[in-house]
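Changelog-linked ticket: BES example.
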Amino acid sequence: MSLNQYFETHKERFLDELLEMLRIPSISADPAYKSDVAKTAEYIKENLITAGAENVEVCPTNGHPIVYGEKIINPELPTILVYGHYDVQPPDPLDLWESGPFEPVIKKTEIHPDGAIFARGSCDDKGQAFMHIKAFEGMLATDSLPCNVKFMIEGEEEVGSVHLGQFCEDNKERLACDMILVSDTSIIANDTPSITVGLRGLSYIEVEVTGPNRDLHSGVYGGAVANPINILAKMIASLHDENNHITIPGFYDDVLEIGSKEREAMNQAPFDVERYKKNLDIGNVHGEKGFTTIERTSIRPTLDCNGIWGGYIGEGAKTVLPSKASAKISMRLVPNQTSDKITELFQKHFESIAPESVKVKVSPHHGGEAAVTPTDTSEYQAAFSAMKEAFGKDPIPVRGGGSIPIVALFEKVLGVKTVLMGFGLNSDDIHSPNEHYGLFNFYKGIETIPHFYKYYTELKTQS
Ligand code: BES
Ligand code: MN
Ligand code: MN
């Protein structure tokens, strides 16, 4: 049986198996779901074993486990390490989901006329990681696996991959490989394939502003005592100037400016700002002066408040001058900026702009470095050829705005480059209510992956 025939024959089962995994709420951020995260790891382990992987193991960490598996057909041949994550973001706000986040349903949409799977994790990243297991199953079953493969599917990506660095350090030999293949990013459109050639870094911080030592009557004290919510709002607002530049001193010092030629090239990528606005129901786009939307979401660093709270938010009105206000703030970083340095600059600046009337506490969360993946390598060439064969079109190199901090870490610890060959769409609502993943994308991914193995092995064994 040919690989295509195998995929055609087992299509329905692949989907059913994915839906079963999507029913397990593997929310890594919430300790209440610890056993569901573990259950998902077991599910992946079983699937890898059934597909034909060897030495499959659910490796415990101090957090959620990492699933490992491998198939070494000949140590002389190249080895691809597939990385993915089976944990998902919390699904809230729940009331904005049209169907349960862990009750997957298939629905047609304008962008996905063949149907899309609606469930948390369908695109990010259970659905995309699962494509790799099914592609591997097919290659083994049809005797067409051309090289060695190792799988490392983790359960803590959405909470900063805190234990993955140590795991890589401790398992250098087991993880030895020629490259890392990741499907956890997007393409421009289903008829416009692209390959992600860069990711932004991240610096995530929580701040707390304290005014008086207790909540006060806003009439008795209001006007004479600093309201921490008013102050915090003003402090956050001051982090951007009228051109939407970030005002933290030194913030841009290490930013690599991109040459005009490269900027011109990146702005050639298909992008329809009117459709973008309509899709998001916004009157206009907004961002750093002097840069296009494509640039603002890829080569420029940003600062966003992710959440803000304090005071009374219950039913009705309560006249209170609260004691505390808090916010979560993230900064997306670009190559050459370092997460630790930016966190420090933020902390210093934020403390310096606080008036004497309040106290400020700045607590750093996780961070990670940006990554750029070169295009003049056999890895990129193989991804290019694979996508071209599957989509019938040359893929476009695109720098992504999201972050996968382990990409920089893999290079540092394992000394290997990553290829980001993802199949989602930016409109798939990852991290949002009604996350979905196109059936077209799921099957196209399964079809493309073996092409990648083939081209990569050819290129590596030639040289
Ligand atoms: N898969 C995403 C990252 C992504 C999405 C990159 C789309 C490019 C295009 C990943 O799961 C993710 O959400 N990462 C987090 C960072 C992490 C440290 C929590 C992110 O980017 O917010
Ligand atoms: Mn992801
Ligand atoms: Mn994610």
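Closing comment: Example verified and attached. The chain has two domains: 3-199+370-462, 201-255+301-367. The chain has twelve helices and 20 strands.
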